[in-house]
Amino acid sequence: MGLMAVEEQQRHRQMMAVAPPKKGLSKRFVVTSIIILLVLNLGVIGWFYFKIKASAESATTSSENATTFSSLTTAKLPDEDVAGQDLAGLEKYKGAVRTFYEKDLNSIILEYKINASPSLILNFYKSELTSQNWILQNSKTDYVLFVKEKAKIEILTLENKTDKITTFKIIFTPSQ
What we know:
Layout: H1 3-16, H2 27-74, E1 97-103, E2 108-114, H3 118-130, E3 135-140, E4 143-148, E5 151-159, E6 166-173
Transmembrane segments: 29-50
Keywords: Membrane, Transmembrane, Transmembrane helix
């Protein structure tokens, strides 16, 4: 055989030779597999996180609504008036409970709670006081001021929207 034939044979063997199989997996394959598994795990963990968060927010909202509903249905007025006395000659709004009384040399302050709207309370006292010759000097949706000679009566109202109980304050200042 000639030198050419030997070289051609070697070239043919090199072309036909298959690289021996590598033992174990390639580093690239292992790293890629780990990255894919991490991404999938993060996706699953993220999904569970948002599901749990949404569930917790729903439970919180439900409990807030339950509290609001509960307070609407269980709102209760005090059982009895605190110590003190109502203004002489002025009828107390029916069903109102006196929750505060203070008297000094310059004024008498009374506070009541009732399950009624501010407009009903103010209209009641407007009628009551005008029938006793008090003059309405100022009127707003939550406030009235009456005067008679130099004495004055102010009535302020504040409605609690949650439990529908109105607190109203009567301030009587006698003529000096």
